[in-house]
Amino acid sequence: MEIQDLQRLKNKFDIIGNDAGLNRALETAVAVAPTDLTVLITGESGVGKENIPRIIHQFSRRKNGKYLAVNCGAIPEGTINAELFGHEKGAFTGAIGERKGYFEEADGGTLFLDEIGELPRETQALLLRVLQNGEYMKVGSSKVEKTDVRVIAATNVNLAYAVATGKFREDLYYRLTGIQIQMPALRDRNKDDIYLLFRKFTSDFSERYNLCKVSLSHDAISLLTAYRWPGNIRQLKNIAETVTALESRPVTPGSERIELGPAALMRYLPDEKDSMLPATSGPQSAGGGMSDSDKQMIVKAILDLKQEVDRLKEAVRTGVPVQEPVPAGLPRYLDMAPDEPEEQLPEPETTLEGISIRKASDELIERALAKHGGKVKPAAAELGISERTIYRKLAEWKNNGRKA
Fold first, then answer.
1. What whole-number distance in Å separates Cα of residue 384 and Cα of residue 394?
2. How far is CA 309 from the centre of its chain?
3. How far apart are the first and last CA of the chain?
């Protein structure tokens, strides 16, 4: 797909970004649109999966037919079959008349089934029949109905895992996964896309309410793009609009834009669990916290640090210089003279095996900042942590009257 054609497509559907994964998803959608193949769109919640079925419908031979979007997870289990396939009068309590279902309403068009992983097993069997031969029956009826509908499904759960655990039918899974389109998470996209989206959301909100447009300083942009965005584009849009509403002001002559720094922006980014480990999109524990391997890394680093401190204290006591090099990434207490009094050595707070995680972290951050002339970005890169962690630590030190 030519770059110009791709950009026109983005403009038409109000899609922002130049990430390769995003472009690949859009190109695949256009390529499969002329067919009647069932398409499964995968990706985390809030990544913009709803754009793909609209694109497929508009580029298909069904573009003049109806396009209906159904959130399967929002329909109660007791009424999902009636919603999808319709019902006869008296089929159940409250069925005072005959009702068309979505498959009948969308006949000749496209039906988008979002959160398909939430469908009950019984409904999955009925859906499989429609996908295979276009046949279904209304609730309370024995008459077989026919429909000609192009089905596009989306999910934010791992359907393969749902199949393995018995929550999703294997035959339906294979029927849905002929064509898969993966929408990338915001944290996995080109970092420039994050600020492009932020700028778009703040600009739209400013114009709507006649407010000054909000821009970010270089450091604030770094903070924005370093954040992990677990809620993806939906979360970014909400924060961008909140920042504009609370930090901007009505437009006046000569005042049409304001710039925010990292301190102002940080107030609106939800606090993440403080960690000396970099944010990662890899596997996490079932509870959503750090994985066991991450915890083991932290414990190992703390124990290594404790051993180093113990060696240095013994060197001070005996007067014998330490010969072993300090492990990379640990505070270099070897810079201290061997004959310094023992009371001048750092005495961490006791939390784990005699070592304080917080104090060790403070020391690492302080030394990295000093090494890089107070510049946050290279210090964060050297430590392997997010810039947000350092900015939050600087704010904490300032509140405690401590200088970095």
1. 17
2. 39
3. 51
Q: Which residues contact 94 (CB under 8 A, 6 or more apart)?
A: none
Query: Which of these, 56, 149, 161, lies nearest to 111 by C-alpha position?
Result: 149
Query: Residues in the chain, how many?
Result: 404
Dihedral angle over CA of 63, 65, 69, 70, nearest 10: -150
Nearest C-alpha neighbor of 244 from the set 207, 296, 219: 207
Please count the other Cβ atoms lying within 10 Å of the Cβ belonging to residue 394: 20
Specify the DSSP element, H or E, that contains 144. strand 144-146
**Range from 140-144, 165-169, 186-190, 375-379 carrying the lowest mean pLDDT:** 375-379
Dihedral over Cα of 346, 348, 354, 357: its sign: negative
Q: Is the dihedral of CA 133, 138, 144, 145 positive or negative?
A: negative
Q: Over the chain, what is the mean pLDDT?
A: 82
| Rounded Cα gap, residues 377 and 390, in angstroms | 9
Collapse the DSSP code of 213 into the 3-class scheme (helix H, G, I; strand E, B; otherwise coil) and give the result: strand
Indicate whether 143 pLDDT > 60: yes
302 falls in which pLDDT band (50, 70, 90)? low
Other beta carbons within 10 Å of 381: 14
* Residue partners of 287: CB distance under 8 A and separation at least 6: none
Mean pLDDT (whole number) for 54-62: 97
Q: What is the DSSP letter of 182?
A: E
Give the pLDDT band (50/70/90) at residue 273: low
The pTM of the full predicted model, rounded to 2 decimals, is 0.67
d(CA 371, CA 375): 9
